[in-house]
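agent> Task received from the user: take the single chain below, predict its 3D structure, and emit structure tokens. No templates, no multimer pairing.
agent> Plan: (1) validate residues, (2) run structure prediction, (3) serialize to tokens, (4) report one or two observations.
agent> Step 1 OK, no nonstandard residues flagged.
tool_call: predict_structure(input=
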Amino acid sequence: MRTMEEMFDPMKKIAREEGYKFNPNKLELNDILQGMWDNEQRYGYPSCPCRLASGTLANDMDIICPCNYRDADIADYGSCLCTLYVNDEWIAGRMPHDPVPERRPKEYAIKGYPGINEQKGAGGGEMVEVYRCQVCGYLCAREEAPDLCPICRAKKERFEKFRMK
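)
tool_result: status=success, residues=165
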């Protein structure tokens, strides 16, 4: 079982490379990290502490930190939903610290991330590909593999299609 600091160390490197910062309020930062660590201990994966995880990896693929919504949230609001990741404008107070609206579709919270547990056409959902980083094993369910792995920074070419059992 890894410690909270061991969970946080790789996140620091990635944030530096992507130009993001972490919430400068140490109490808030520790609360967020504690929630993520608790989720990792509870479910086996570090789901966002600002959302309710189902406890089923396939249903929560979009909310494993860094979640699928982080980049758009930071671009529009200066922080992600839980304020773990922030940009310089947010830190400097040049962006309001208003609550970030939830981007995750409501049906994802109810039924889970689409395409993984549904067959094409069942429930109206289209099958979404799951990609696995061949370097570190990171899984993501998206239309296409990410340009860079958020964990180990491997390039898109290092991802393979993955079949959930």
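agent> Step 4: summary for the user.
The chain has two domains: 4-113, 128-165.
agent> Done.
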